[in-house]
Design goal:
Blueprint lengths: L2 E5 L6 H15 L8 E5 L2 H12 L8 H9 L20 H13 L11 E8 L4 E6 L10 H8 L26 E2 L11 H11 L2 E7 L7 H10 L2 H4 L4 H13 L2 H17 L3 E7 L15 H14 L6 E2 H10 L8 H14 L2
Parallel strand pairs: 1-2, 1-6, 2-3, 6-7
Antiparallel strand pairs: 3-4, 3-5, 7-8
Helix pairs in contact: 1-11, 4-5, 7-13, 9-13, 10-12
Length: 351
């Protein structure tokens, strides 16, 4: 394997990752090939894993530019992802239809249909831990890909949790239970053992890219949640629900991302997995709403413009990125960011 691509995702910011991937191909000669590239990700990043499998495989690929970007991604609207109800969770049947149509075009019914070595993370609500599904494991071969993508992108509390069923009764089952967004339990949590084993069997990567949309937990994000969660539902939320939501919001923040990078940087120094590890995350002056899916093409163009203006910031070596931790230490779990988040959650849910 030559390359590894980690796609972290963040709800409606899916096209930001697509723009970064395109710029890596254009400026860094990133080669996406099923026999040279390993993929791993969660949330909307996992949706992009499905798209890469459909569009960059060797046999009968769909068009990345003409089909995926122009006919699917750029045409996505919020109504194509979810419909508001009087109560939460919202109705995400439009997203299931969208995935079924796209995956159907690519003949990707189960995870075993993916030709890239692919790892997709989900968070088990029952076990409160992260689990990884992969097409390199025989016991996972029958996992329904639509179910898996629905689960890994299910925003806790807002989107309904999902079961991950096999494509047939004869297929081996994945772990039983209900699942939500894969980033909830921590970015790439529990992935180290899979990655270490993979590198031991295939050799270390030449380049590993960790790709992320622009991140922050802003007032706009909280206001979006405030609009979606009706007042009649606010008093029905358990402390466990609030805890899961708090962890989710922390993980999609810049602080949560940097916490993962710090942990991964220390681990990669002890375990040689790649000659080069790069961090790819844009830094525009303004970001896009977390749950507004209407402006995918505009987000894509904004990231492309930012890269064109800052080509040296497209792929930052992880050791260079990690220097900021020395200059400004990350906030601990009990520090100000968590206290502010908890206070804001209480105000949102009126408790």
């Amino acid at each position: 394997m030559k390359n590894a691509l980690f796609l972290t995702g963040a709800a409606a910011r899916i096209s930001q990752e697509v723009a970064l991937v395109d710029k890596l191909i254009e400026l860094k000669n990133l080669e996406l090939s099923s026999d040279k590239t390993m993929l791993a990700g969660f949330s909307s990043g996992a949706l992009n894993i499905g798209a890469i499998n459909a569009c960059f495989r060797n046999n009968n690929p769909l068009s990345w530019d003409k089909y995926f970007k122009e006919e699917v991604l750029f045409k996505i609207k919020t109504k194509d992802v979810f419909v508001k109800n009087r109560f939460i969770p919202v109705d995400t049947s439009p997203l299931r239809n969208l995935l079924n149509n796209f995956l159907g075009q690519g003949n990707l019914k189960k995870i075993d249909d993916c030709t890239f070595d692919s790892f997709i993370l989900a968070f088990s609500v029952w076990r409160l831990t992260t689990v990884w599904a992969s097409n390199i494991y025989n016991r996972h071969s029958g996992i329904n890909l639509t179910n898996l993508l629905m689960a890994t992108s299910a925003i806790p509390l807002i989107f309904p949790d999902q079961s991950i069923e096999p494509t047939s009764k004869k297929a081996r089952r994945f772990i039983r239970g209900r699942f939500v967004d894969g980033g909830t339990g921590g970015s790439f949590r529990r992935f180290e053992k899979h990655l270490k084993k993979y590198v031991r069997q295939n050799g270390e990567f030449e380049n590993l890219y960790i790709v992320s949309p622009m991140r922050e937990v802003s007032n706009e994000d909280f206001e979006e949640l405030d609009k979606i969660i009706p007042s009649s539902q606010m008093f029905k939320l358990s402390s466990k629900d609030l805890g899961i939501m708090k962890v989710f919001l922390d993980m999609i923040s810049q602080n949560g991302f940097d916490t993962f990078i710090k942990r991964f940087y220390k681990w990669s120094n002890r375990n040689k997995i790649a000659s080069n590890i790069f961090i790819c995350i844009p830094g525009m002056s303004d970001n896009y709403p977390l749950l507004n899916f209407d402006r995918q093409e505009k987000q894509y163009q904004s990231v492309c413009q930012w890269v064109d203006e800052n080509p040296d910031k497209l792929a930052i070596p992880i050791d260079e990125y990690a220097k900021r931790f020395e200059e400004k230490p990350l906030l601990k779990i009990t520090d100000k960011i968590r206290r502010n988040m908890r206070h804001r959650l209480r105000s949102i849910f009126n408790i």
